Each structure stands twice: as structure tokens, then as C-alpha cells.
Amino acid sequence: MEEDIESVQSIGYMIISTQIRSGRVYFLVVNLWQEYFRNGE
């Protein structure tokens, strides 16, 4: 079970790191952060 979780996390990390290089995930995170902040206040 733990090995499966680790493999999934490593695959997800690979995908995320690839997305970050294109800047798409960073842009998405910033948008979500701003939305969360706006709703928080």
C-alpha cells in the first residue's frame, strides 16, 4: 500500500515539475491563492 502511494506521488511530482517548467501550475496556484484570499475576507 505505502509503495503504491509513493509511486503515485512520484508520478504526480514528475507531472507537476513538468507543468511548472511551462509555468502553468504556478499561474494556477497564484489564481487559486488570490481566490482563496478574496473569499477569506
The assigned structural class equals mainly alpha
Order of helices and strands: HH
> Biggest sheet, open or closed, and with what strands and sense?
none
Shape: flat
Rg is 14 Å
The parts where pLDDT drops under 50 for at least 5 residues are: none
Mean pLDDT: 81
Number of strands: 0
Strand content: under 5%
What portion of residues is helical?
A: over 70%
Terminal CA distance:
40 Å
Count of all domains: 1
Number of helices in the DSSP assignment? 2
Q: Which oligomeric form is depicted? A: single chain
Would you kindly provide a brief summary of this structure?
The protein is mainly α and 41 residues long.
Q: Any overview of this molecule?
A:
- The chain is mostly helical.
- 93% of the residues lie in helices and 0% in strands.
- The longest helix is centred in the N-terminal third of the chain and has 21 residues.
- It is flat, with a radius of gyration of 14 Å.
Topology:
Elements: H1 2-22, H2 24-40
Spell out the key features of this protein.
41 residues; mainly alpha; single chain; flat
